[in-house]
Amino acid sequence: MTVQGPAGSDVRKVVAFVAVLVVVLGFYFLMLGRIGLELLGSGELAAMAIGLGVLILPLVGVWIVVATVRAALDHQRLAARMREEGLELDTSELPRRPSGRIERPAADALFAQVQKEWEADPDSWRVSYRLARAYDYAGDRTRARETMRRAVALEKLERES
User: What mean pLDDT is predicted for residues 72-80?
Assistant: First the structure.
């Protein structure tokens, strides 16, 4: 049995692709680190300054990769819990564009419905998760990310208490 994600995509393929990207980035970061160390060891002031800058790049890159993977794992954990509890937004009956995206008026109506749920219980990670998904369906990615971060933080508080 294969685990299916959104739109029937095979989750294992996505995980394998991400793993390959992380390995490639790791190799790239190692190469940058080696070049940075060589430049630092050159003894020339300009080369040493560039070497320091080159060493900073892999550190920033590792931080970005770790933060992104951690966020993705957190989001997947919440999605799994929502599916298990039967609380995932049902968008199966909503009209869609040829691209597969939900038509804007339907997405806006779904958002308005979920926003009312959130206003009634803003401290629930489940409702915050649903609101983040509704923002995403409505095309507001920035607010979707902010609200999903809130949902993750609220869920973590619930698990810890």
Answer: 92
